[in-house]
Known about the structure:
By secondary structure, the chain is of the alpha/beta class. Helices cover 41% and strands 15% of the residues. It folds into 2 domains: 8-26 and 269-397, Aspartate Aminotransferase, domain 1 (Alpha-Beta Complex), CATH 3.90.1150; 34-266, Aspartate Aminotransferase, domain 2 (3-Layer(aba) Sandwich), CATH 3.40.640. It has 16 helices and 12 strands. The strands form 3 sheets. A 7-stranded mixed beta sheet has the order 2-8-7-6-5-3-4, sandwiched between helices. Strands 9-10-12 form a 3-stranded antiparallel beta sheet.
Amino acid sequence: MHNDRSDYRKKLGLRAVINVSGTMTALGGSIVVPQAREAIGAILPEFVEINDLQRKASQTIARLCGAEAGFVTASASAGITVAVAGAITGTNLARIYRLPDTDGLKNEVLIQYGHSVSYGAPVQQAIRLAGARVISIGTVNRADLPELAGNISDSTAAALYVVSHHTQQFGQIPLGEFAAVCRERGVPVIADLASEYDLSGFLAQGADVAIYSAHKFLGGPTAGIVAGGKELIRSAYLQNMGIGRGMKVGKEGIAGTIAALEAWETRDHHRIRATERSYLELWLQAFSGQKGVTVSIVEDPTDNPLDRLKLQVDPHQCGLSAWQLAESLAQGDPPVIVRDHEIERGWFYLDPCNLHPGEVEIVSEAILAVLRDADGQSKADPEKLSEIRARKMEATLRWPD
């Protein structure tokens, strides 16, 4: 493993996790780029007028996102809440102060049922925190334009469109068509784009507000980016005087986000993709031919310009299931955390975008070691997944013990 960097985790007695899951909040987001670390360190000892710093952030966000304005908030989830709140209140301070009480105001927010996901918390909750009422459109596998149009009423404040690997990837209304119907009826579309590379395309497709995580592909500090038309952004920003106060971001989060955005402009994306591809090829070669294991390189489901390795496990041949393999890796030394959101289907993914030098080989060795140990064991118990999940939930509910 690369040993030139100091590891603060050791001082705290934390496990030295290797992340092949992706840009996950539960694992700390991403590797923060040097430019953002430098900006954070430089501004932390200083005082600054936050509104003026946010004006500087607005200029950078507007340029990168093709927007009129933007600001930084605590997270993408916070961005959803304050954007919805802004659509409800506008810039009316009396309304801003009374939220989440929305009696007598437009307070309905439309969302396709297939977009009603959890990203660690239900997306509907981010809407309801603003005092809004969620109106679901369609079913889990299908939504239609007539139903969308038919649910827009005098009470509709906004519509939320979610782009994520968690959403239903078929049968949903495309963003351009969704936005066109809403625009005809004066309903702003808020797009949740927490893990998306494309900083400008979704506004170009018709979204009125675009929300990104600063701490995912951008490699910034934990924060959310809210971009869009000036009036909507102003209305959302003014929620910092109301319910957004509890979602405030500090000077370090704003400065770090500005730096991460500026670094994005000059990042050598082609070189990074080539490095990640070399990791995938190494894994592909390492696992091909392993008994009971099928591997392939797959594209990102939301068209981000990156690939992952899909590792499928046949428990009859391997002696263990995909989730047993994933759990063994997570309990290893060092722990290797895989991308397991489809684990019930007998596979998981290896995401190469957050690896430090030398870790790609450690991942290979760890997986091969678990497979060797399982070779010849009896058929895996299919109930083990529910047991693993129950144990993890019990541990969470016992926190901080």
